[in-house]
Amino acid sequence: MEEKIKVILCEVGKDPEVKIVPNEPDWMEEFVGGYLEATSITRDGLILICNDERMRLGLPVNHNFGLGVLGNFIICWAEGVELASVTQDDLKMLNLL
Fold this sequence. Notes:
By secondary structure, the protein is α+β, with helices and mostly antiparallel strands. It has 3 helices and 8 strands. The strands form 2 sheets. Strands 1, 2, 3, 4, 7 and 8 form a 6-stranded antiparallel beta sheet that branches. The longest helix is centred in the N-terminal third of the chain and has 8 residues, at 25-32. The N and C termini lie far apart (27 Å).
């Protein structure tokens, strides 16, 4: 497992940021504000990680990328059960370059 990965951090009310962050569930739970839920964005493994209880908690809508996710979220890759960094191609696809 990589100790750190490059991800896209999407905070409510802020522009997305590309950051290198600890590849640790505790850090990610702190960023999203609770238990983690992962959802596929693409068929080949690009995922979105958000707060599992976002609806129950009434988190605000995050308008980044037009996804309408509630609360903060993280975009990265899933390779099996491991998380991996986003690539330059991902950043181009999401208009972050």
